[in-house]
Design goal:
The chain is of the alpha+beta class and 215 residues long. Helix content is 26%, strand content 19%. Helix 5 packs across helix 6. The chain starts with 6 loop residues before the first strand and ends with a helix. The relative contact order is 0.17.
Amino acid sequence: FGLRSLKLKGMVDDASLLRDRLSYGLYRERMAAPRAVHVRLFFNTEYRGVYLFEERIDDGMILRRFGGTLGNLFRVRYNGGAVYAWKGANVAEYVPFPFAPETNVETGDHGVVVPFVDLLNHDPQAIGSLCDVAKLLDYFAVEAAIINNHGVAGDPGPDNHYQYHRPESGRFHILPWDLDSTWNSDPERDIFRNFQNVRLSAAVENVPQFRAAYK
């Protein structure tokens, strides 16, 4: 099916074995997200159990979803810091951490991250010029619906997502990842929980038109 590698997930923290697959399915209704399917794994005819077969977020998936010229894909990594905070105009403050390039690692113009973070911090109502706001709102709406407490607005901090800069539009598109911490928290969870802790989600809550569309 055009895949160069497989990701087999044992779902050891999910007794239902369903969280990731259901969550990816809901995200795919609204935006680009990995495909996922259950498989029975055999190794040299020996049965090893049920696994989740996930599509990797890589250059192949990006081209299948977006087409066109391959742009810069970043895995956004959280390690206790303010991921989307403004740290000045030096791209080295953002790449390779927390924005870890997954495509065009040696050749990409990673400076595209700087104006995006600049707008988030200084003119958030204008982020539509550098970000697909409709898909960003879809991301947060699904994150709230499935109670994803390890996403951008997660309890530990902003985690488990990618940002893809599409050359054709010049805008960033968010992609969800690693959705096993879903469906298992308080169903009364506030839909704006932790939003003020991350500049990306704070923009959604603080800009009136974004807030209304998200709700």
